[in-house]
Predict the structure.
Amino acid sequence: MEWIPRSDKEVADYLSKIVDFDNWGVKDSYFQAVNSIWGPFTVDCFANSINAKVPRFYSLFFQPGCLGVDALAFDWGGENCWLVPPVYLIPRVLVHFLNCKSRGVLVVPFLPSSLFVLILFRETVHLRALL
């Protein structure tokens, strides 16, 4: 055992206290059911090395095996995206998804009073008009 002064471990101490409260996901069985209908998905846009549902994934922080950090900084065109974003990013994800003209499945919690519900409803009406 060796004593290490607190000043020598400030970075490690700071990093150990970061808690990602927006890290949520879905059960593997739910993913498999959705993947069998609308898959195969080519990229998991909001994952980490532990909860990624497909081999190619973007992460909030650098993770072993990730394609990159911050999925919104990349073009999703040509991808079939599995999207389970943090709640605060849902409006930006919708805009980015439409701008990239990608396809995929967006999983969001049922929060009727959220801004993204209005956006989803508007886009659903718009998409229905196109069909």
